[in-house]
Design goal:
The complex is a heterodimer.
Chain A (H helix, E strand, L loop, with lengths): L1 H35 L8 H34 L5 H8 L1 H4 L2 H12 L4 H8 L10 H25 L3 H10 L3 H29 L3 H6 L8 H10 L4 H24 L23 H27 L8 H31 L3 H17 L2 H12 L9 H39 L3 H29 L4 H5 L7 H10 L3 H30 L3
Helix pairs in contact in A: 1-12, 1-14, 1-15, 1-16, 2-7, 2-9, 2-13, 5-7, 5-13, 5-21, 7-9, 8-9, 9-12, 11-12, 11-16, 12-15, 12-16, 13-21, 14-17, 14-18, 15-17, 16-17, 17-18, 18-21, 20-21
Chain B lengths: L3 H4 L3 E6 L1 H4 L5 H12 L2 E6 L3 H11 L7 E6 L3 H6 L3 E2 L18 E14 L8 H6 L4 E4 L5 H14 L3 H8 L3 E5 L2 H9 L5 E5 L2 H9 L4 E4 L5 E11 L5 H11 L2 H6 L7 E2 L20 E2 L3 H19 L2
Parallel strand pairs in B: 1-2, 1-3, 6-7, 6-8, 10-12
Antiparallel strand pairs in B: 3-10, 4-10, 5-8, 5-9, 5-10, 5-11
Classes of the chains: A mainly alpha, B alpha/beta.
Amino acid sequence: MADRIIAIILRIILGGAVLAALLLFSIGTAVAVATQGLGLGRLGVADWSAIRFTLWQACLSAGLSVTIAIPVARALARQNFLGRQALITLLGAPFILPVIVGVLGLLAVFGRAGWISDVLTWTGFAKLSIYGAPGVILAHVFFNLPLATRFLLQGWSAVPSERFRVVQSLAASPWAYFRLIEWPLLKSVVPGAFLLVFLLCLTSFAVALAVGGGPRGTTIELAIYQAFRLDFDLGKAASLALVQFTLCGVVAVMAFLVPLPQTDGLGLGRLPQRLDASGHRGVDFMWITISAAFLILPLGAILIRGLGHIASLPHQVFTASITSVLIALASTVVCISMALGLSLAFARRGQVARNLAEGMGILGLATSPLVVGTGIFLMIFPFAHPMTFALPITASVNAMMALPFALRVLMPAVRETYADYLTLRCSLNLTRWVWLHRILLPRLRRPLGFAAGLAAALSMGDLGVIALFADPDLQTLPLMLYRLMGAYRMDQAAAVAVVLVAQSLALFWMFDRGGRGYAGSP
Amino acid sequence: MATTAMADTPVLTVYTYDSFVSDWGPGPAVEAAFEANCGCDLQMIGAGDGAALLARLKLEGSRTDADIILGLDTNLTAAAAETGLFAPILMTANYNVPGGWTDPLFAPFDWGYFAFVKNAEIESPTNFRALADSDFKIVIQDPRSSTPGLGLLMWVKAAYGDDAAQIWADLSDNIVTVTAGWSEAYGMFLEGEADMVLSYTTSPAYHLIAEGDASKSYAVFDEGHYMQIEVAGKLASTDQSALADQFLQFMVSDVFQSIIPTTNWMFPAVTPIAGLPDGFPNALSAAQSLIFSPTEAAALRNVALTEWQTALSQ
């Protein structure tokens, strides 16, 4: 018994330590930032317009993503076709796709020198220009439309098939479908999906860095970076960081009140159950084709351009690869330990503790990497050269950024395992070893693998804090890609993009696969 | 690579802008020429574009590894001097820099005139007002990270004074994008992403001399062209003071200065004995040349930057 109490205390200490670390990371850095900030008076016209732009584009991006996702998800839920499963899987890809790669692909299709501009010029129209607001919003929709579609699709697949049959037998009018099935579904999923996408667009950095096109497309995150790296105005960076922290805080509180959609991606494979598929075939396939093309063309453009140039890449690509993988692995270990610590400590502790842990996850989601980076920089600066710590800082900030997603996968699994097996453990009086080895671990293996895969892939693609701290001689793959884009070596940039995506997917696959492989043989 | 012999070799670290150390820039030839005689390892590190160099230096303070900063210009020297991080330079040279040279902290290595580079066959606007009224698409650089970007601010300020803010407001729909550095902008122009790019009157000579391609020219502006004088300075925190002096002396030597015209595509600060290569443009007349003194430029920078940011963020 004493043994058990110690174990419980240990778990709580462990969970508490993780909580403390998280608080130090988010609130602590914010305090560091606040004490250095010179208040809002420090902010000029351009800063306020960056703040306005950030909110406006986040609203518009989230609105567009969710609105377009509604017919796309409806089409996917309604129609069965060859490649449906592949397309649904592909919808998960942008989430772990390095942002800078997506941007490169979008430029190849929508840029002034891109495919669509070529067609437009050929047919006598003006070229597209996506730098500035259009580019930022386009990229945000590219990344978040699939996410929103998956949320809605999950909503669709949670509708019991009886309900479809009832509606069908009652009236089968489109209005009945909408009123009895779709409206309740939208009501429960859309607010959360909107908030989540809004939050992701609020803290977006790499997109504005690459296609913001100057002051008119500057987000707060980018303004923080510029105050740092271009003006060396720490006071202004801190003031901006404070604004960003406040905005994210407000959205986080809202997110806490609205049920956020599940992100584990389970159950998406269920086949369509609606019985009115044939009547909507035309419209549905239009939406499916458009969204698939929007997703596949940019990625295809990079693959086509990049594959042939991999051999001509400078040798630095090896060092950059290794640096990226090391950061990703370190960040995965940190992230999974934190998520596991929190889950084990709080999953069973009743509503308050669970809310606390959930709140922590949302806090992580609402924490801006650049704010954390700014805070850490300010804390280190008086004592040492902050650039020296670029790698450990990047790894821990990346871990923190992936934590909310890891928590959402792990927490329910831990809770379920305890709910299902704790009585068994007590009644059979299983030893700790058997419990851990035979029951807990095998049951957690799959979510652990999936969460680790997410964490690793997210870290591989990160271009945030690293940009703040990077030396010219320090390179990660995303940074190298951005620098090649900067030198306008688009062929080589595309080749690095291919390498980067391959590595991200390989890491994700390895972890995810590792998790699955074990799950079959408990 | 690191043999014991090399471990004892003194290392001279030079922070410079990206295009200086690129494969086609002066970097490789300069490194080879200097290392042939110095018994040292010259490490030139590209740290973004010129103006980002100064921010980086402020970020690193006296902890910096750099011994020399090469690539600031006279729009930034007053702010650079104010950091107190630079040591006086000891050398002089027979400078051929318009307006002469007397700065105690910085030595010039080349100079040029800003201009919008375009395809030669295009009939282009002849001043900023006409450009703003036209549909011409341009790519410019961020004045906070790039010396050409800052030079453009000064150019508009020198030509239009208090009307500069209005000029920027009118120009904003001509600007495709604002890049962090010169290389990005020039690359975008070459890929057809814009009709004109902010660069130098000497840039078309690169295409003519290096590529035998006469298709590029620059738009002559009737307000005149703002000048850039690029400089280097020695950091007070250097642990290689003598070597740094030696490098600065080398910088104004005939070897270094002869490398400049056809790699950095600027006018050398000391005219090489062999003269300028065929196809290199002439200097503009004094009436066509605009430039603020370092103190004037420093005083104008914040006002001009705010005008620019305000106009372009609308």
